[in-house]
Design a protein that fits this description.
Elements (H helix, E strand, L loop, with lengths): L1 H7 L9 E2 L4 H7 L25 E13 L9 H7 L6 E11 L16 E5 L1 H13 L3 E6 L6 E6 L3 E14 L5 E12 L5 E13 L7 E10 L7 H4 L5 E11 L9
């Protein structure tokens, strides 16, 4: 279950970042599966401002289309075998992106809402809860985003278990053909079991608006899992990921329902 959570909770917890060097992130996607730990990222600030064409309610169809263990057979993560069963098996669940006012600092009063200051953000608690329950069912109790920081999210599970995800670095890029690309690095801590476990995950996603409505948006996403310093194989792995997962994401408009569907 740790492996599933480590992979499936990433792309709906996307946050903004500094602009990457031109073409760097798109080139990174093109180099799959030849990856190393990304270095051109910065500490997170604030919330993600998505393009306006992502606004509204969506049915998101996610399909794992490829996976790789770059350091096999020397290092293979336990989740790789289980996640291989998800290959080419699409799942669907509702997500939404909503308008929110930009935070204003240094003021002692609450200003009137100016529609020009409204920006588009993901409803991360709603989106991540639907995603987690699609994979894990009623074992998922709730998903909470820290009200003081959009960079910290906690998924609560039955059995007094929880997954804490913290964004530690990020970067974004807009390509000449209007793809919106973002890279986030997460520290993930799985607590409540006999042995607390943490690792690092990087997710790079390229969103593109389509000329059709069926789907209206598609995305190419690669999730990379890196060992934490507590792992005995940490120095052997070096800067290389131990697992890579590639997804095709498709957004269908106006199809939000209360119950996630697999």
């Amino acid at each position: 279950m740790k492996a599933i959570l480590s992979v499936c909770l990433i792309f709906l917890f996307l946050l903004p970042g500094s602009e990457a060097a031109a073409g760097e992130l798109s080139q990174r996607l093109g180099n799959f599966p030849q990856w190393e730990r990304i270095t051109s990222v910065r500490s997170p600030e604030g919330d993600l401002i998505y393009p306006d064409w992502m606004a509204g309610n969506w049915l998101l169809k996610s399909t794992l289309i490829d996976l790789a263990a770059p350091l096999a057979p020397d290092i293979i993560t336990p989740g790789m075998i289980g996640n291989r069963r998800q290959l080419n098996q699409p799942v669907s669940f509702p997500v939404r992106f909503v308008k929110q006012q930009l935070p204003i600092t240094g003021l002692k009063f609450i200003p009137r809402i100016d529609t020009k200051s409204l920006v588009l953000v993901a409803d991360r608690a709603f989106n991540s809860l639907n995603l987690a329950r699609t994979y894990l069912g009623d074992r998922v109790l709730s998903v909470k985003v820290d009200p003081k920081s959009p960079n910290r999210q906690i998924t609560l599970l039955k059995g007094n278990l929880q997954l804490v995800s913290i964004v530690t670095a990020r970067a974004t890029e807009t390509t000449p053909d209007n793809k919106f690309i973002t890279t986030e690095v997460f520290q993930q801590l799985f607590k409540g079991g006999s042995n607390p476990y943490f690792n690092f995950v990087e997710s790079t996603t390229a969103y593109q608006q389509l000329s059709t409505s069926n789907p209206a948006i598609e995305a190419d996403q690669v999730t990379a899992v890196y060992l934490s310093p507590q792992d005995p194989d940490y120095f052997k792995a070096g800067s290389h990921p131990v697992a890579l997962y590639r997804y095709r994401l498709e957004f269908f408009p106006g199809q939000v329902s209360a119950t996630p569907k697999g």
